Amino acid sequence: MACNEVESYRKNYIVDAVKSIDRMQKETVLDRLSDCITCETSLITRAYNTVPVILYCRCEPFEAQILGTGTTNIFRIECIREDRFVTLRLLTYENGTYTCTDQTVIFDLECCCGLECFEPTNCNQCSAG
Fold it and tell me: How many CA atoms lie within 13 A of 19 on its CB side?
């Protein structure tokens, strides 16, 4: 089967995975909003707030242009809308370290035929979308 002929149940699985990553990242950001330790807040904070991902479209990694420096195919999921459109923050990866850029791109999950996730990292420059 060609990537452009991905069956509906496979697309739903990818959408569910993207939604799950989005939810976990937002929960982590919310955990960090309070620096005070109270009975209502957790004594344990999460160490990471980003799951770097590569999305595949037509069997190839989706790439986006980073102004002035080239392209990237590694992203942070910022938010998903209508179970189809996902806002992605562009990441760079150099010397074993991920860095968030200030740039985002909107990706149509209808095109997506694969999702690759990497070891969680901390991306302080990102904001919850």
Answer: 10
CA angle 3, 100, 125 (to 5 degrees): 140
CA separation for the pair 21, 17 (Å, rounded): 6
Question: Which value, in Å, is the radius of gyration of the alpha carbons in the chain?
Answer: 16
Q: What does the alpha-carbon distance between residue 23 and residue 66 come to, in Å, rounded to a whole number?
A: 26
DSSP state of 37: -
Name the residue with tokens 């195919």: 73
Bridge-based pairing state of the strands 74-81 and 70-72: unpaired
Averaged pLDDT, groups of 10, the chain, 129 residues long: 50 84 77 51 61 92 94 95 94 92 93 90 61
Q: Does pTM top 0.85 for this prediction?
A: no
